[in-house]
Design brief:
14% of the residues lie in helices and 29% in strands. It contains five helices and 17 strands. The strands form four sheets. A five-stranded mixed beta sheet has the order 9-11-17-13-15, with no helix packed on it. It has a four-stranded mixed beta sheet with strand order 1-3-7-5, with no helix packed on it.
Length: 351
């Protein structure tokens, strides 16, 4: 009897293996740890006024490869977003300086298309705390196809009343338009590491009021110089278009910029353009040295507040005059024009 039963089981195994092992108890589907990771939470919307914790997929274990996650933080009116990384462990093998594979970006806006606060981040060093300039902040987490290890990150977020916001703004992106600008440090992409080749970055900055001006202070300026600055260069224009006047001259040498030197616009607009030649890092190293530390630029731009534009008209008292009305009007118009001309600011070139 036992032999007959064993023969029957063996016959089923040989003829119909799927009928035995295709049940939920013995699945034949291939198990993939990577597929399981991709089904885990990646990004999300966070708007709890009391704050909370946010973590990368599968934390505190490996986060997986080939992921793009957006963590969006939305504060209510009158609040800004503050984040602190409690744990930070992002794969940086062959990636430590530029963070081009696995990386974390923090963006000052409702999604990752808005300007970045600082540079791309990877490795094990915890970044500094960051705060948005308005109601929105976004953390963008990218992992490459060949990602091999890393626990990811754990961060804490909280909503802070705007009145208590620290005045700290850093932009590390290639260009952007900034309306109602209140002051910020602008850096070339990849700063403070070597600046990237083949860049054409245009920042257009608009101060809040028509009588405001903008002042540029250089914190760092280290790019490879060239004759007449025809290769890598920085251009500051006194306005928002390519046709506006250049402030002083096109810049490419550190010696052209003194620590106490300031560049000031005559109006509320500044156009800043950074260009670098199309070359590889290896090609650049053939004609530069490691001790040059060509990290690009970091400039602090501040708003010089102007007098508010007056919209109030005060009627002059009526007095008896022997002058004809037309003569009086012409004289007053001429005097007003002279006053405006005297008040106009003209930036003189600095030597």
């Amino acid at each position: 009897m036992r032999l007959n039963f064993l023969f029957f089981v063996l016959l089923l195994f040989v003829c119909c293996p799927k009928s035995i092992f295709s049940s939920s108890r013995f699945p034949l589907v291939d198990y993939s740890y990577e597929d399981e990771l991709k089904n885990m939470t990646c990004g999300g919307l966070y708007k709890d006024l009391n704050g909370g914790e946010v973590q990368s997929p599968n934390y505190p274990n490996w986060y997986g490869s080939d992921r793009d996650c957006e963590y969006m933080f939305h504060a209510p009116e009158g609040y800004v977003v503050h984040i602190t990384f409690v744990v930070f462990d992002i794969d940086d093998e062959d990636n430590e300086q530029n963070c081009v594979y696995d990386r974390v970006h923090v963006h000052d806006g409702p999604n990752s298309t808005f300007p970045a606060l600082g540079k791309a981040m990877c490795g094990k060093k915890r970044p500094e705390s960051m705060m948005s300039s308005g109601r929105y902040l976004t953390v963008f987490f990218h992992t490459g196809e060949d990602s091999a290890y890393g626990r990811g990150f754990l961060l804490e977020y909280r909503m802070v009343k705007e009145d208590n916001r620290e005045k700290n703004c850093i932009v590390n992106s290639c260009g952007g338009d900034f309306e109602n600008f209140a002051g910020c440090e602008i850096q070339t992409p990849n700063y403070p590491f070597t600046y990237l080749p083949n860049q054409h970055c245009v920042w257009v900055i608009h101060a809040p009021e028509p009588n405001d001006r903008l002042k540029v202070n250089f914190k760092t300026f280290k790019i490879e110089p060239s004759i007449n600055c025809v290769l890598n260069n920085l251009t500051l224009r006194d306005g928002k278009t390519e046709q506006d006047d250049i402030i002083q001259k096109v810049l490419c040498q550190e010696m052209d910029i003194k620590h106490d030197q300031q560049y000031v616009t005559t109006g509320p607009y500044l156009r800043m353009v950074f260009k670098s030649v199309n070359e590889t890092f290896t090609e650049r190293s053939d004609h530069t040295y490691d001790f040059d530390h060509l990290m690009g630029m970091a400039v602090k731009i501040e708003v010089i507040k102007g007098e508010p534009a007056s919209t109030t008209y005060t009627e002059k008292p009526v007095t008896t005059s022997t002058l004809a009305p037309t003569t009086t009007t012409a004289t007053e118009d001429s005097q007003d024009n002279d006053d405006v001309a005297l008040k106009r600011y003209v930036a003189s070139p600095l030597s």
